[in-house]
Amino acid sequence: QVQLQESGPGLVKPPETLSLTCTVSGDSISTYYLSWIRQPPGKGLEYIGYISYSGSINYNPSLKSRVTISVDTSKNQFSLKLSSVTAADTAVYYCARLYNYGYGDAFDIWGQGTMVTVSS
Amino acid sequence: DIQMTQSPSSVSASVGDRVTITCRASQGISSWLAWYQQKPGKAPKLLIYAASSLQRGVPSRFSGSGSGTDFTLTISSLQPEDFATYYCQQANSFPLTFGGGTKVEIK
Predict the structure, then answer these.
(1) How many CB atoms lie within 10 A of CB A52?
(2) Residues 6 or more apart from B38 whose CB is under 8 A from it?
(3) CA-to-CA distance for B98 and A24, rounded, in angstroms?
(4) Where does the pLDDT of residue A53 fall: very low under 50, low under 70, confident under 90, or very high at 90 and above?
(5) pLDDT tens per residue across span A79-105
(6) Helix (H) / strand (E) containing A75
(7) How far apart are CA A48 and CA A82, in angstroms?
């Protein structure tokens, strides 16, 4: 059974860089498209970006200038870095697999999420 | 960006009720739409992809329909475990975007 697990600091000071890692267990990520999604407290879901096993990347333009997503296939991990954070970046951060069903993409496997608070 | 608008934002219903949630896209997205269920403190769970295809393991009381700009999620007979927030998400173009959510509450 494939599982995703986020890890990283729960508190980040502005304007530092938020860094999170997602570890995939139960399968190799060598064919995966891996995404980051966030959810501010009490609010909806926001797509941050994805990286493929081959290294192709897509970022949400609203965050593109501050986001870096990378993959380490040898560790079955992928990572998120978000620079120059402010209180507006406080959210639960999820990693998820973006799966192509042939006639539709969807996030079919999610990590449990990790809360990141931006505060001095 | 494609804007996704859900209605209603919340609905009160009883066990056994039929519940319908609507999602409208700001432009046509063919059938590139997914639905998720989220319970408090948990990650979203995929229910429906490609507008009407039921994800494996999801009860058949959930169904999706629509294409183009207008979509619906229907729960045919609401069960206690269905009280949650539901989100739609378009997969037609990047950035992928979600609706604002519909909270299904106990009447």
Answers:
(1) 16
(2) B44, B45, B84, B85, B86, B87, B101
(3) 24
(4) confident
(5) 999 999 999 999 999 999 999 888 778
(6) none
(7) 10
- Distance from the Cα of A74 to chain B's closest Cα (Å) equals 26
Q: Do B95 and A61 touch (CB under 8 A)?
A: yes
Q: Which residues contact B58 (CB under 8 A, 6 or more apart)?
A: B46, B47, B48
B98–A47 CB contact, under 8 Å: yes
CA dist A53 and A111 (Å) reads 18
Query: Residues with Cβ < 8 Å from A49, sequence gap 6 or more?
Result: A35, A36, A57, A58, A59, A60, A63, A64, A67, A69
Rg of chain B in Å (alpha carbons): 13
Q: What is the pLDDT of residues B26-42, one digit of tens each?
A: 999 999 999 999 999 99
The verdict on A52 touching B (C-beta cutoff 8 Å) is no
Given its phi and psi angles, is residue B13 left (phi above 0), alpha (psi -120 to 50 degrees) or beta? beta
- Taking alpha carbons only, the member of B90, B100, B88 closest to residue B1 is B90
Which H/E stretch holds residue B10?
strand B10-13
Count interface pairs A-B at CB distance under 8 A: 65
